[in-house]
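Quick question, first post here. What does this chain look like in 3D?
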Amino acid sequence: MPVKNQYSELLKMSSPCEKLIRRDIARTYPEHEFFKGQDSLGQEVLFNVMKAYSLVDREVGYCQGSAFIVGLLLMQMPEEEAFCVFVRLMQEYRLRELFKPSMAELGLCIYQFEYMLQEQLPDLNTHFRSQSFHTSMYASSWFLTLFLTTFPLPVATRVFDIFMYEGLEIVFRVGLALLQVNQVELMQLDMEGMSQYFQKVIPHQFDSCPDKLILKAYQVKYNPKKMKRLEKEYAAMKSKEMEEQIEIKRLRTENRLLKQRIETLEKESAALADRLIQGQVTRAQEAEENYVIKRELAVVRQQCSSAAEDLQKAQSTIRQLQEQQGNPRLTEDFVAHLETELEQSRLREMETLGALREMQDKVLDMEKRNSSLPDENNVAQLQEELKALKVREGQAVASARELKLQLQELSDTWQAHLSRGGRWKESPRKLVLGELQDELMSVRLREAQALAEGRELRQRVVELETQDHIHRNLLNRVEAERAALQEKLQYLAAQNKGLQTQLSESRRKQAEAECKSKEEVMAVRLREADSMAAVAEMRQRIAELEIQREEGRIQGQLNHSDSSQYIRELKDQIEELKAEVRLLKGPPSFEDPLAFDGLHLARHLDEDSLPSSDEELLGMGVGAALQDTLYPLSPQDARFLRSLERPAKDSEGSSDSDAEELATPYSQGLDN
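> Answer (accepted):
Ran it through. Tokens below.
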């Protein structure tokens, strides 16, 4: 093999599987002399072969169980030849598929073995299932190590010889034969007992007579066509399971994404709900504050109106006093009335001052609250409101000026009145009346001042009402914007939901399209396989028809021959050739280790003579390959031998002349 020349180079390279190989080498044939000891020659060459193969076939690398096969080969030949034979076994005897990381071929073998067990030993199969004793628990090592870890070497090598000639069929046969022989004992054991029985009793049942095991194995019914059908069923089942796993994985991914989306939407909804509640609470607080301000404003207005009424009464009283100045007769009742009015005026003054202080405090509080409110965003509306405020402020300033002028006039009148007060010093009653008038005038002056302050407060209240109106408009606009944003959010949520629905529908359609495409591809492959099988059958049928035609022609030539003597000689030659054919068909001897070199001699054959598949190679066997290699025949000899092996169908109407014509080229071929 070409890979034989690479063996020395492969040993110089490093493999990622070296640690695993070192770990398992000590457990490979631990009782055999060749492999006993940590640094023995057997362990070293076994490590070299396993490392070289892990570098040649990186997809398989190293798998437990393959070391036993390589160890058996190393008992028979040098490490380079053992490496070449192991490569050939892996490539052409289905072992590579068994040792792949997925171990798909092992699952197929277990599936086929379970079918044979159910078909041929139904009672034992039922017992295994009732005890949950799966086939893989005892049969996996049979297929992976070819019974090398089950039987002693004399029995295991016998099975291995048949495996090299027939393939994995012997593993099925030997496995069922073991179960048939031990069926009665296994039916009486539980799961643990059966496991111990497989490990301790079965391996040593045939130590003295391996032929008995082989005879039992070849009594087992084995149908290759059923095996092919089971292989197709297993492939279809695995393909369906793979599609289901892909679909489940896709659904899990979609479910995870939907859960994440739901969590995000729930968080957004909770945040919006918090903002909405906070806005409602703020609006309630502002409404309550507005209500309190309105009540306070109503109280201030009522106080202002009462102060205005008192001022009017004082003015009327002043007018009456001015009219009565010219009347010399003043009574004590009038003086008492003036004293009562003076006391009431002082009380009202005190109340007005208290209310004034309270209003000042409230105005300061309202100014602080107004400073904390947000600014106006709409510039145009703010300008209009500012113009209106300036107009009202101008009116208030004008009214304040008028009030100041009135106050100045009243003060001038009072000064003039004081300057004329010298005329009443002569009479005590007039003096008391003048003092009362002075106090009344001072009270009225204070009332006028209070009225001016009330107007200023009224102006301040108007300003506060204007600001309140501005802030109310701002709140209305903010509420409108919030409603618009909420509607937009609802619209976007509905649109997002629709898009999610469309996305899921498109994904579902895509998955359906992928499934349909996979089904179509599988159908096309099945049709191709059927067409290839049909073509192979047609070719086989054509070959049979050609052979039949050749036989008919040969038989006709022999029947029309007139030379009986030559026919007898030809028959003698035919008998000799049949003897040679039987000798060639006999099983080749494998006593000499160098006989394994015949495995790679088959590489020198023509490409047309090689088998087209692993099954044909297994059907041909190693012996047939050695036979064709060691004893090559010409095409005429091969056709003649095939014609001898097939039975004659019709011999009537033949002659001796045709036999002479057939024998002449054949004898020339033998001379050549």
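The first helix runs from residue 7 to 12.
Confidence is low (pLDDT under 50) at residues 422-426, 587-635, 643-672.
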